[in-house]
Each structure stands twice: as C-alpha cells, then as structure tokens.
Design brief:
Chain lengths: 404, 506
C-alpha cells in the first residue's frame, strides 16, 4: 500500500526495491520530492528511516519506509575564487574532494570511515583529526537545505563566509543525526590547497605520548592535526603520536623545529607523501573496526582519565581502535560492548563532565541508549520541544537520546 | 532607586519583586535613568525601557527572571549597549536587564587554552588578563575596548581578525544560561564537545531571545610571536577589490584584510586618529600577517606584498614595529569615530557579499549614494566580503533620515541580489527585522519562531526583535488548524484535521 502511495509522490524512478527487511525504499531526485514524501509521511503517520550510502550507521532502524539520499547527487555550484561549494547530500565525500581539488581548492575535513556520503558526514558531525587546526565540520559549513520532518523545505545560512541573519539552524542540524529532517544539500567553505603538507610520527607509551602532545601546545604551536592513537589504529605494537603540519614552507619549517624541541627526547620520523597519505587513510578507515564507534569530549589535561575510564568499562584488553585528538580533547573509540556497559560508561563520563556520543552502532544499541544522553537539567525538554518544531508527528526514526 | 513618581507600565508588584532580588538601588525607574538606556550604537532607533534592573551575579539574574516570569513581564538583556542593530532596546512595557555588574573572570586555564567569564566582562580585558599566559581571546570587534562578552555571544560578534581566527561562535565552548522562566542550565561541555545537538551553536547569535548567558567558557588562542602589517593604496576601488580575491586565492590566510575607501581615509586623516594613510587614493588595504616565527611571517609578508603590487597597488609599505602597526590600526579601528567629522549622526550598515563581487558592489553602492544625495563611506572586512557602508547624516532632519533609510534598504537589496546576506556581524535586532523576508521564506521564518518558543514559550525574551512575526508561516504539523493531506487517487493535496502527537524518541 505504502509503495503505491510513494509511487504517486516520486514516480517509478524514485522508488527502489524493498530492502532486506522488506520495507520500501524511496529515493527522491529533488528537494521538493524529498519534502513531499516527508509531508505525506507526516500526514499519514508513517515512520521514516533516513539513509545515506549505508557505510556508517547500519540501515537497520525499524520504519515504514526508508528515504535514501542516493539520488540527490552532485556538486551543483563550485566557485574556486570565492572558495565556496554547494553539494547535494547523496554525493560521495571522495567525489566532492576530488571535484574540489581539480579546481585547486580543498574541503578542510577528514571524516572517519570510508565510502560515506556528504549528508551522512554532516548529519553526524563526523570531524576528523584536522579539527585541531581548522575547527570541526560545523565550522566549514556556511549553510544548508533541510527537508524537515513536517515536510517543509528550509534554507538556512548562505554562501558567504559571515552571516548572522536569524538563528543558526545550520549548527543545530549539523550533528543532529537527522532528528530534525533530511539534509538535502550543504554550502561548504573551501580553502586553497596548502603548499606544504608534512606528517611525522613516533611510537611509545600512551601517557608519555600524551604528555609530549601537550608539550607541543605549551610551546605555543597548533599543528593541523595532533593525534595519539592506539596500536590497533596503526597496526603496530605500540601507541603512536602523529602530527600533521600544513602551510607555507617557512611556517611548516618553523613549526617543525618548535615541535622537535618540545617533544625531545622523543624523536619524530617524517613520512614521505605517499606514506603519510596511506597512514591517514588507514587510521580513518579503521574507525569502523568495531560494531560501535563513540566519541568522548574531555579537556586535554583529562585525556588520561577519559582513556582509563574507557578501558575500564569497554576496552579491558586495551586492544581496540582509539584515536585521540589531543588539542581538541576528543577521544574516539571503536569496538564492541553491550548497551548496559555503554550506558554505564556514559554515566561515569558525565560525572567527569565528559559528553559521550554514540557515532555509529547497531539498532539495538542506538535504540537502547541513544546517540546522546545524560542531559543536563532542562536540556532534554528543550531538545524535545525543538524536535516537535521540526517533526511535529515524530515520524523520523532517530533515537537521539536515552530520554523519551 | 525606584522613583514612585515616575510613570510605569511595569506592574508595581513586579518592581517590588525586582527590588527584593537585587536591592532598591539596583532598580531604576526614573525617566532620567531610563533615558540612559534608550539607544545603542545605532542612532536611528530610540526606546525607553519601563525599568532597568542591574543584578550582581547569576543567582540574581535567575531571581530577576523568575520574578518577571511570575508577573508575565517581558525583558531585554543588555551589555555595554554598543550593538548596531537596536537589539538591546526595550519598550516601556519591558524591563531591561543590564549585565554590567557581572564582570568576574572566573577562571583562566592556560593548559587547556580556555577561560570562564561572566557576561559583563569586557572583550579586551579578557585578552589583557590572558596575555601573561601567551594567550588571547581572538574575536576583536571594533568596540572591543568597551563591548562585553555576553553581548558578543548574543550577536555572534566578528572583528578584523576573524578572517583567520573565526567569529565568536567559533570560540564558545560552554554556556551557563538562565532561561526566560528562570531555570538555570548548561549548554555544551567544558572542552566544547556538544552534549546533544549543538545548542551552543544555536544560542550564539540568538540576540538575547533564548535567555541570558550567565557564565561563558571561551577558547583562548596563542598570541602570535611575529606580526607584520602592510598598507597598500590603490587608485581604484576595483583593483583593490581584485587584490583581495588574489590574496585569498593564493592560499595564505592573513590575520586580517581590511579596506577603507577615499572618503573614509580622508575623514580619518582629518581627525585625531590620523594614521598617515595617503589621501589621494581611491582605497587602502590593511593586511596583517601573523605566525609563530619572524621568518615564516617575513616570507608570507613578501608574498602578499608581491601579490598586492602585481594586482595594481600604487605603493605597499610594511610595518613590523608595534608602534607603527598600532598607528596603522588606529585609523581603521577608530574610523567610525572619525566619521563624526562628516556629520552629526552615522548609520553604520553591515552586509556580506561573495568576495569576488566586491568591486562591482562597491561601485553600485557609490551610485546609490549619489542617487539619494548621501555621502557613503566604506570601511570593512574585505577578506570576508563583510561590508560596512556608512552614511553620515543629520539625524534631526526627518527628510534626511527617511533618505538614509531608503538608501540603506537599497544597499541591502543589492547585496542580497548578489548572493549575500543582510548582516555579517551586527545582527538583525530591530533595524533589519523587516528585511528578513528578503533572505528567508515564510516556512523558514515560521520554523525560527517555533525554535524560539522551545526556549521561551511566552516570547518574553527580547520581544519584537529579529523575526517579522507577520511573515512567519504557522506550523503545518501539530497545530490546531486544518492540515494538508494527499489524495493519492488524484495526486493532489487536500485538507484534513490532524491530531498533534508527541515526538517519537524511539
């Protein structure tokens, strides 16, 4: 029955075959079709699962139908002189990067995972190591188009680098896991490709490397990326500190000297271009090693506490994939743990003022503990009210938090 | 002191309740006292609040908001009143909550590059306090010597160095917020990682309509160890604009890239803020380069100087000595004050356009000035495409005021048609509320209104600002009026009554 109704809305070309669980999949070609489908779902009370390329969060949420962004593809506007691009949500991140690079520009974000769509990366706020030097994904966003759960199309932000007109709905949508609607396209800030790109690393013990990383910050330098990673992440037997410098020859040379002196006696090895590219790709691809990937926010001086807490609750053998963005105070872990353990971990972390985000996990985990949780006073009420504003009938199947 | 003789539209019981929270001496109701708060930095708007309350700390802010909730009185939060959109003005039916007594720097945490401050702390004072640690608070609005961080958060303030370091929103990690009903909550986390959807990002720039930030955790940035400032002059606005694009495209991100046109340069050079700019030019660019070493900064300065020359600069001078640099910046930062020489009032406008359109837009703005018989000066953040066309005028002349308003509207339409926006850092406030439909459709405006109600169901926080309520479409779903449904037989929409449902958190 739903198939027939969806066919009326998007035509034969917008309807894909049923997924493995037997629910219909609809793939709108335009923002308007997307909004129309959501509007109809809202009218009928159909529950909707939002899908990108299916390589990050599993396509396993129970729903009446799935709405995939796969037909919303392409870089629709690219202005290398203004350093701005508009790209549709279903476009592959790798395609976006290469299209932009062809024009001598660069999207300053290195999200974990592989084969992901732009919409998935934006909706889950998947920032990578470059957040240290350039800010998180939200800092690269100039605006976006959102088809809300109510079936409205809202266009917020713009294509200019400064904009304070109206409330910043772009920031609310980035990292909301689709709880407010389907992001159909985004306007991204680009940068010119840096002249020098250098990566250096050293192996050692975890806490010694964390101290070394902090000594780089104390020396007054902020690299483009500064990660301390677990043995599984590099495929070696010890933890590693990995540093990336970007910029002009003189700036990179100056930072190289400052950093070498700050981390002494640890000796850093500089990688050649292909080794470095391979290393970063391996690190990020392995973010899906375990069935769950999560993110903890901690102060740089509290990273040992965050890692010890993580080890105690979900990584007792200390053999999981972990990346720590030291200056940003972010720990990312991938492994396997039951929901009750993860819930306990979140509670303990909250006591330390460390928020925990489930970035990807199977449905039984997401639905049990939510992407977010342990909200402070009044926050849960505000978020529930915001969700009603965007999705009045609650059709979007997004387990945003562990609070109902 | 409460003046019992003054005319009040705020219920006396509410005034009594405020007095019991903060003490009589911190509640102002006399006409003379209220007049002090009747304007902000934009002289085209004037409105006296019904009362002013000046709490001392977060607990008193909470007490004040609870009292106002109880008496259903609207309120407007205000910092130093340097805003440029009429955003901190209150009507006689509202209470103005001045935050200028919440001035404590609560914590400076150099290891984690962060500081915790109360909202009344002055922007430049925070940087002065963190300087001994080799750190500073990077966003630097021109009013930084007087404006408060609470105001910066409300407006998402910018400044010249935001080109490299980002605007206020990029530097706020955590906010303690007194909601309009007097509940105290915390958004974000000590290190900045969101705790749920990004409510910090949503709150920053909400122009005081979601509540009052009572404690602000900011990111600190290492002070650059080497800085050089270049001054380039151009014989046409177009070549200056083209030089801006050439610099940004080169891959070097200057710390600041500012432009002033001839009228502005002339005003500065005739004032006490004289900076030694050449006055026989069409435009000057001020470019600042900073970094961790002299060698790195010298290399980038050399590259920028050569780009400026090949882009048609008549001359390029470089200053590395702090005094010389301060002098070059003085002219830029005090330009608004210098324009007081042209006429008694100044309409400071704010819009953003794609950088590559700067030459065309500047020419058209100049034409608009001629068409309306007004003198338009431009001093702005060229690297961001953030224009500040300023119109000096005699505010006592109503005809002139109308002309200024019309010319400003024409400039805003021009910028929006060019793919830009109506404000880059000054906010919408009262001044641009009616321009919002230029860039947002009724659905988006309606959604903004619903978002505001998630924080402030009664719409008592800074009422009448930002949203042109008549242009906001009501919610399609969950509202009591008939809703559209689809007739799948005919493929058309029809209307039906839908029952609202609570959100599903599945």
């Amino acid at each position: 029955m739903i198939d027939k109704q969806l066919r009326v809305l998007v035509g034969e070309r917008g309807l894909l075959g049923a997924d493995a669980s037997g629910i219909p999949r609809v793939a709108p070609h335009t923002d308007e079709e997307c909004a129309l489908v959501l509007s109809a779902a809202s009218s009928e009370g159909w529950h909707v699962r939002i899908e990108g390329s299916g390589t990050w969060i599993p396509s396993d949420a129970p729903a009446d139908f799935a709405l995939t962004t796969r037909n919303l593809r392409g870089v629709t506007d690219l202005n290398p002189a203004d350093l701005v691009a508009t790209v549709r949500a279903g476009t592959g991140w790798a395609n976006l990067r290469s299209t932009v690079l062809d024009q001598g520009a660069w999207v300053v974000a290195d999200p974990p995972g592989s084969g992901r769509s732009v919409g998935s990366i934006v909706a889950t706020a998947s920032s990578g190591p470059l957040r240290t030097g350039f800010g998180t994904l939200r800092d690269q966003m100039l605006g976006l188009t959102l088809a809300t759960g109510n079936g409205e199309i809202v266009r917020v932000g713009g294509r200019v680098v400064k904009n304070v007109a109206g409330y910043d709905i772009t920031k609310l949508a980035v990292g909301s896991f689709g709880a407010f609607g389907v992001i159909t396209s985004v306007n991204l800030r680009l940068r010119a490709v840096p002249r020098v790109d250098a990566t250096m690393l050293a192996y050692g013990e975890r806490d010694g490397l964390l101290r070394a990383a902090r000594s780089i910050l104390e020396a007054g330098t902020t690299p483009a990326a500064l990660e301390v990673v677990s043995p599984l992440a590099t495929g070696q037997s010890r933890w590693a500190v990995i540093i990336r410098l970007l910029g002009s020859d003189a700036a990179v040379n100056a930072d190289r000297l400052t950093i070498a002196s700050a981390v002494a006696p640890i000796a850093l090895k500089e990688l050649d271009t292909s080794e470095a590219a391979q290393l970063w790709q391996t690190l990020l691809t392995k973010a899906t090693t375990g069935e769950t990937t999560l993110r903890l926010g901690a102060l740089p001086t509290a990273l040992e506490t965050a890692l010890d807490t993580l080890a105690h609750h979900v990584d007792e053998a200390c053999d999981d994939w972990i990346m720590v963005s030291v200056p940003a105070g972010v720990v990312r872990w991938s492994g396997a743990a039951p929901p009750n353990r993860l819930r306990l971990l979140r509670g303990v972390c909250a006591q330390h003022e460390m928020p925990m985000t489930i970035e990807r996990a199977p449905w039984h985990i997401r639905s049990t503990i939510g992407h977010f949780g342990a909200y402070r006073e009044s926050v849960g009420r505000i978020i529930a009210s915001l969700r009603r504003s965007f999705d009045g009938r609650g059709i979007l199947v997004v387990p945003l938090s562990d609070e109902s | 002191m409460v003046d019992p003789q003054s005319e009040m539209t705020i219920p006396p019981a509410a005034i009594d309740a405020l007095c019991s929270v903060v003490g009589d001496q911190w509640v102002r109701t006399s006409a003379a006292a209220l007049e002090t708060y009747a304007s902000d930095g934009l002289p085209t708007h004037h409105s006296c609040p019904g009362a002013v309350v000046i709490p001392e700390n977060a607990a008193q802010v909470v007490g004040v908001l609870r009292a106002l909730e109880q008496h259903a009185v609207p309120f407007v939060a205000r910092g130093a009143g340097t805003g440029l959109s009429g955003g901190a003005l209150a009507s006689e039916g509202a209470v103005l909550v001045a935050l200028t007594r919440l001035t404590h720097i609560c914590e400076i945490d150099p290891m984690n590059r962060r500081a915790v401050v109360e909202p009344g702390v002055i922007n430049a004072q925070l940087s002065a306090a963190t300087e001994p640690f080799g750190l500073h608070y990077a966003p630097d609005p021109s009013s930084q010597s007087v404006c408060t961080l609470g105001g910066n958060v409300a407006e998402n303030a910018g400044g010249p160095h935001c080109l490299k370091y980002g605007v206020t929103g990029n530097h706020i990690l955590e906010l303690e917020v007194a909601l309009p009903n007097g509940e105290l909550t915390t958004l974000g986390s000590p290190g900045g990682e969101p705790w749920g959807p990004d409510l910090v990002g949503l709150f920053v720039g909400s122009e005081g309509m979601f509540g009052i930030a009572t404690r602000i955790t900011v990111k600190l940035t290492p002070l650059p160890r080497a800085v050089r400032t270049l001054l380039a002059d151009f014989s046409s606005l177009r070549t200056a604009g083209e030089a801006v694009t050439a610099i940004i495209s080169s891959g070097i991100v200057p710390a600041a890239l500012e432009m002033m046109d001839q009228k502005c340069v002339t005003a500065v050079e005739a004032s006490i803020y004289r900076a030694g700019y050449p006055t026989d030019v069409s435009a000057v660019l001020i470019v600042e380069v900073d970094g961790t070493t002299e060698a790195a900064v010298a290399e980038e300065t050399g590259q920028i100087a050569s780009i400026l020359q090949s882009s048609g600069a008549r001359s390029v001078t470089t200053a590395s000595d702090p005094k010389q640099r301060a002098r070059l910046w003085q002219g830029r930062k005090k330009a608004f004050g210098a324009m007081g020489r042209i006429d008694s009032d100044l309409s400071v406008q704010d819009a953003v356009v794609p950088r590559t359109l700067l030459p065309d837009i500047l020419e058209q703005i100049s034409r608009i000035g001629i068409d309306y018989g007004l003198s338009v000066c431009n001093v702005f953040h060229a690297g961001d495409g953030n224009l500040h066309p300023n119109i000096a005028f005699n505010g006592k002349d109503p005809v002139m005021r109308k002309r200024v308003e019309r010319a400003s509207n024409a400039i805003m339409h021009l910028c929006v048609e060019g793919g830009g926006t109506i404000t880059g850092e000054h906010g919408v406030g009262l001044d641009k509320r009616n321009l919002m439909p230029l860039i947002f459709d009724p659905d988006t405006l309606g959604l903004m209104r619903r978002i505001r109600r998630a924080f402030d169901p009664d719409e008592r926080a800074n009422p009448g600002k930002v949203l042109p309520t008549h242009s906001c479409r009501k919610q399609r779903m969950g509202s009591p009026q008939p809703q559209e449904r689809f007739d799948y037989g005919s493929g058309t929409r029809r209307t039906a009554q839908l029952a609202p449902q609570p959100p599903a958190e599945r």
